[in-house]
Design a protein that fits this description.
Elements lengths: L1 H5 L15 H18 L13 H14 L4 H12 L12 H12 L6 H27 L3 H4 L7 H20 L5 H28 L5 H29 L5 H26 L12 H8 L1 H11 L6 H6 L3 H11 L3 H18 L6 H10 L1 H19 L2 H15 L3 H17 L4 H8 L1 H21 L6 H20 L5 H9 L5 H53 L8 H8 L3 H20 L12 H22 L1
Length: 629
């Protein structure tokens, strides 16, 4: 449901022309039509476009009567839901109602206080995720010696990797696949609460362990907090957000996960010099692991003050409660009624897909449209791990120590990595919708490969000061590129690429893919580092970044700004045809841009892109003719 609403963001046109006055009302339709032609889109096309205004107003009134709500309000709301950009011409709306819709269109970040509260809670939930992932970074400088696995043997190397990767083994094999079941029974808020509870308890448990296998078990159970939470919070945010900023709020997950990663390094630094105080097997590393419980507890205290997801409430038949929830997170009753009614309509559309779970699993691979979407989600999730970022996230302190840093300086350098990862995630707010998911990745993978090679080859520099400086530079440059590209893209892309009826299964598959390869990377890095040396280990992941470039080039269609029906067309193109076209397109781009040859662009692959190009040419010709005249 949330994506059905999201795909109509591109339909929400600028409503500044003619907000007040008869001249403005008469010009709104013609302006929107011309704007739509230049975009290659039909104005305000959605699932209600098949009905007349009178019909949808009747539908809204009947819906309100059925569930004991205001029929006049829902009658108007249904008409607005049908044609969101044309509210100026709706004489039955009051000036205050029009002004609220105008402000929503022009100033989408002027939100209700309740929605800001929800954003803060969701952001803190993402920070829980980041801290859960990285407090082990500093702790592993100490716990191996206490548990008798510090000696550089093959067995100990694999044990350290197993302990560090334990949560992701749980996520990929068990907990991610529980997300739908938990959300169905516990609600969005309930799932967030209990997964944060599990995170808090297991973090404290990790700090109380007394041998390596006990620590492994506690971290394995931490996966029950990480997996479902990583699926639920982005969905919860998207279901509560207004359409115009839904993409940005989904992006908040990555931004504040990066903040949590950084804050995990802060905790490692804070407790690094804590003496044992007669605590068995040390105190510092125990405090590092236990500190990740703090943001989880804060989320638990906040989440019940936030409204429940309106979509979840409607799925349970609680429509009046859904309207009340929307009323808390929208700035006017009309907006709340509009979103309640439109959500109801989309749920009716969704109910037409009464497909059993295992049939959905089968069809994500056997139906070409679904299969291409799943392959795209797999590519971005796989490469989020095999680009090498979490090697640095989990082992940066060990890497910096290997390069010649002291333990304290290694932790400081790791904190610098975390800060860069957070700060440079912020520009993704603007770049992901401006440049597109595919374009960001095609530019970033070669750069990340070069910077990993820079960091790896720097281990051959004989001078220690120069060596540590170049290694840190390579890692930081790599992180800057990652944070603005492959960091934010995977969860956003995976939520967009799935067809309606297999969306939940596709997201479970995508999330499990992410955590499975996270587990593989975390498990194998210590042994890889020992077998290949730092130069070879960094070179290994540099090579995978070039593989990622080719995977994106051949297998990843662009999803930016496309509606659901347009995505169906895009993902229904055979993979071999898409790969062949993109190879020709790259060769054409190199000849035109790099070699400066005067050759024409090749014809766009997708129908709606060809329509947009031809419409744009028509508009330009029309304007040129008017100028000449």
């Amino acid at each position: 449901m949330d994506q059905d609403t999201q795909v109509h963001e591109s339909r929400q046109h600028d409503t500044r022309l003619g907000f007040f006055g008869e001249e403005g009302r008469s010009s709104a339709s013609s302006w929107d039509a011309e704007k739509s032609a230049s975009d290659g889109l039909e104005p305000d096309v959605n699932v209600l476009s098949n009905y007349s205004e009178a019909q949808v107003r009747t539908m809204g009134r009947n819906y309100a009567f059925k569930y004991g709500m205001d029929p006049d309000l829902f009658s108007k709301a249904a008409a607005v839901a049908r044609r969101p950009s044309f509210f100026n011409s709706m004489e039955f709306l009051s000036d205050d109602e029009k002004e609220s819709l105008f402000e929503e269109a022009e100033h989408p970040w002027r939100l209700s206080g309740q929605l800001y509260w929800l954003i803060v809670m969701a952001s803190m939930g993402a920070a829980v995720q980041g801290m859960d992932e990285t407090v082990i970074n500093g702790a592993q400088l100490q716990y191996p010696s206490y548990f008798g696995i510090a000696e550089d043997t093959e067995r100990n190397t694999w044990l350290i990797g197993l302990i560090n990767s334990a949560p992701y083994l749980c996520c990929s094999t068990i907990s991610c696949w529980m997300s739908d079941w938990l959300n169905e029974r516990l609600s969005r808020r309930g799932t967030i609460f209990w997964t944060c509870f599990v995170s808090a308890i297991t973090c404290i448990w990790s700090g109380l362990t007394n041998n390596w296998w006990h620590l492994f078990i506690s971290r394995f159970f931490l996966g029950f907090g990480i997996g479902p939470k990583s699926s639920t919070i982005p969905v919860y945010s998207s279901e509560c957000a207004p359409p115009k900023i839904r993409g940005s709020l989904v992006m908040m997950w990555q931004v504040w996960t990066a903040f949590g990663i950084m804050f995990g390094y802060v905790m490692s630094l804070a407790f690094y010099r804590v003496p044992s105080h007669s605590i068995h097997k040390g105190l510092g590393w125990r405090l590092m692991l236990g500190s990740a419980a703090l943001p989880a507890i804060l989320v638990m205290l906040q989440v019940w003050f936030c409204p429940e997801s309106p979509r979840w409430l409607m799925g349970k038949g609680r429509h009046r409660e859904a309207f009340e929830a929307y009323s808390r997170i929208r700035k006017s009753p009309l907006q709340a009624a509009r979103d309640t009614f439109y959500t109801h309509v989309l749920l009716l559309e969704e109910s037409s897909y009464e497909v059993p779970f295992w049939t959905k699993v089968k069809e994500i691979f056997t139906v070409r449209r679904n299969r291409n979407g799943v392959v795209g989600a797999w590519v971005v999730m796989f490469m989020q791990q095999f680009c090498g970022i979490n090697v640095i996230a989990y082992y940066s302190s060990s890497i910096f120590k290997e390069s010649g840093f002291s333990e304290r300086d290694a932790l400081l350098a790791s904190w610098g990595y975390g800060m860069i990862n957070w700060v440079f995630a912020l520009p993704a707010f603007f770049s992901i919708d401006r440049f597109g998911r595919r374009t960001l990745l095609l530019f970033s993978f070669p750069l990340m490969s070069v910077f990993l090679l820079l960091a790896g080859f720097a281990f051959w520099i004989p001078d220690e000061k120069a060596r540590v400086g170049v290694i840190a530079l390579g890692i930081y440059l790599f992180t800057i590129v990652y944070a603005s590209s492959e960091g934010p893209v995977p969860f956003t892309y995976s939520a967009e690429c799935a067809a309606l009826y297999v969306r939940d299964v596709t997201m479970s598959f995508a999330t499990a893919t992410c955590w499975f390869f996270n587990f593989i990377l975390s498990l194998t890095w210590p042994s890889l580092l020992k077998a290949f040396s730092p130069q070879g280990a960094f070179g290994w992941y540099a090579a995978w970044n070039m593989v990622g470039f080719l995977l994106v080039l051949w297998l990843l269609p662009e999803t930016k700004g496309l509606a659901l029906e347009e995505l169906d067309d895009v993902f229904d193109v055979p993979s071999y045809k898409h790969a062949a076209y993109q190879t020709r397109h790259l060769a054409n781009w190199v000849q035109r841009t790099v070699l400066r040859r005067d050759i024409p662009k090749i014809e766009p692959l997708y129908r709606q892109q060809r329509v947009a190009v031809h419409n744009q040419e028509w508009v330009e010709m029309k304007h040129e003719g008017e100028h000449i005249e």
